[in-house]
Specification:
alpha/beta, Rossmann fold, Dihydrodipicolinate Reductase, domain 2
Length: 328
């Protein structure tokens, strides 16, 4: 890793550039105009050699290998959990500076931009990008707690198919087409028919909830009130939706004004509540109706899961580039 180049124009690698997250990250890198030198797009042998456009130029996807990171300053891992687990099992050395978006890699420093302590960026080298739901829940609770104090919270998480990667999106699409044509549905990724249905997905939901709780504890510490979480799988391709009960000593007008003035949030209740479709392509957290109930309020919250995850990873990289005490 070249520390001088890291500050000015780092060489970047995207591992899993053809995945849903990889494509989103690549698009955001291009649109944000993050200063960087070389971009290397890495994939398994199955997808190596593909031609992909970036910043008006055609690039060839290269094979993931240890020497592929020789001249790389920051590597984003956006590959599938299976590919990440295979890379770890191979014993291959990770690049000097890695940001892992897979939720399946080795332990690292969980970093939630805008909430985590920036001093973590000065000495750590392997960062775990939080689960997309962790980012939304963490930022929402942090903004409320810093002003009003959150006494308790209970949240239902509506999981999109894209949280299972390309395979999840493909299966939901195939199931929908099959049902409309009165054909048998395939169930390779999900435990049942997801199209036109809602699934508890108990094992997957339990893993997701535990991962989110663990990451929130890392970010906030053990003294922060632990929210009660429930996750269910819904027949939506992209974007998380949340029904959040928050026990805070504030009125509805106070909460609305607070979110309206908070960077990274937007209030969408003027033209109808936000939906998973309406927020695609936005890296903001969209707050819909805020309903007062006994001991608190219920919030309808929606966010593009791919966009917000990629955005946090890029913001982490930008902060690393500014971290003054990073050592070789």
């Amino acid at each position: 890793m070249d520390l001088f180049r890291l500050r000015k124009s780092p060489n970047i690698a995207i591992v899993g550039s053809t995945s849903l997250l990889g494509k989103e990250l690549r698009e955001m890198l291009e649109s944000r105009a993050l200063p960087f030198g070389q971009l290397v797009q890495l994939e398994t042998e199955e997808y190596a050699g593909l031609l992909q456009e970036f910043a008006g130029e055609i690039q060839i996807t290269q094979v993931i290998s240890p020497n592929a990171f020789d001249d790389i300053d920051i590597a984003f891992f956006t590959c599938s959990p299976e590919i990440m687990q295979s890379f770890v099992a191979s014993g291959a050395k990770f690049p000097d500076l890695a940001i892992d978006l897979t939720q399946a890699g080795p332990e690292g420093t969980v970093y939630l931009h805008g909430v985590s302590d920036q001093r973590l960026l000065r000495t750590n080298r392997h960062f775990v990008n939080p689960h997309a739901a962790t980012i939304v829940i963490g930022r929402t609770l942090a903004h409320l707690h810093n002003t009003f104090t959150v006494e308790s919270a209970a949240i239902t998480i509506l999981e999109p198919a894209s949280e299972r990667g390309n395979a999840g999106v493909d299966e939901l699409q195939e199931q929908t087409v099959s049902l409309l044509n009165f054909q048998q549905v395939e169930k390779r990724v999900f435990g049942g028919q997801l199209a036109f249905n809602v699934l508890p997905e108990v094992e997957a939901a339990t893993r997701t909830v535990q991962r989110i709780l663990n990451q929130l504890e890392v970010v906030f510490g053990k003294t922060f009130p632990k929210p009660a979480l429930t996750a269910v799988q819904v027949p939506v391709f992209h974007s998380h939706a949340f029904s959040m009960f928050v026990n805070v000593p504030a009125g509805m007008e106070d909460l609305t004004a607070h979110f309206a003035q908070s960077p990274g949030f937007t209030i969408d209740n003027s033209s109808g509540d936000p939906s998973p479709v309406s927020v695609v392509g936005s890296d903001k957290i969209h707050i819909g109706r805020i309903s007062p109930v006994a001991n608190g309020h219920v919030l309808w919250v929606v966010a593009d899961n791919l966009r917000i995850a990629a955005s946090n990873a890029i913001q982490t990289a930008e902060q690393i580039m500014l971290a003054p005490a990073l050592e070789a």
